[in-house]
Amino acid sequence: MHFVSTALAVCAAISAATATSLYHRNRCDIRRGEDIFPRFSEYSDWAICKGIITKHRFPNLQAPNNCGGCVRYYRGIDMTGVVTEVHFYHPKVRNACDCAAKCLERPNNCTNWVWKHTFMPDVDGGKRSCTLYSSPNLPSDVNLAYNLDLSQGFLPLDPKNNPQNGSAAPLTFLDAANTIPDRFGVSGFMVQDQNNRQFC
Ligand SMILES: *[C@@H]1O[C@H](CO)[C@@H](O)[C@H](O)[C@H]1NC(C)=O
Ligand SMILES: *[C@@H]1O[C@H](CO)[C@@H](O)[C@H](O)[C@H]1NC(C)=O
């Protein structure tokens, strides 16, 4: 706990130092040619979980400094799929950063995670919970049926999710009737490449 608060303080100082220069560059950032990418040093502007998902904790994490963090996430949207469904509930996970970390700890069977209310009070105690998957949400016109006999390494797969039917990615919600969007729900995507580098 002490380590985390110290790391957060250092990260906050770095963010404050870059804020001024960003303000003065407040115009459309036109990039032509093949290098369309933002500067790596600006990673921190969008990163969540800085000081928690650090390069110290995940040495292969591709972030510009030890503050780390994840930039590949969807606030208020659940972009996860259905395959390799693994649940974590409070107190094993207490927040979205714990959830992202669970996925980073399982690079061989997790590529995406969601932190949201699942409305199962018996198990989630009324709190948001964490689910990990190896497949993302499919787009509306795509339905996939998984051949269980020819597949491996993906259990469990809930029978009602086979076929996996595509849809617009659902929002995260505060109520079981799915009428009140939850702006603190979040999902994220991550990958480990062939050189063992991790991206989130
Ligand atoms: C995913 O990988 C982790 C870490 O290697 C392992 O402990 C876990 O059993 C795996 N889960 C599944 C569903 O394969
Ligand atoms: C999913 O898609 C399949 C194949 O198109 C269809 O038969 C089935 O009714 C769909 N299920 C749901 C729950 O929409």
Automatic annotation (TrEMBL):
This protein's record includes keyword Signal: yes
Keyword Signal included in the entry's annotation: yes
Domain of life: Eukaryota
Keywords tagged on the record: Signal
Signal peptide stretch: 1-19
Protein name: Apple domain-containing protein
Organism, scientific name: Arthrobotrys musiformis
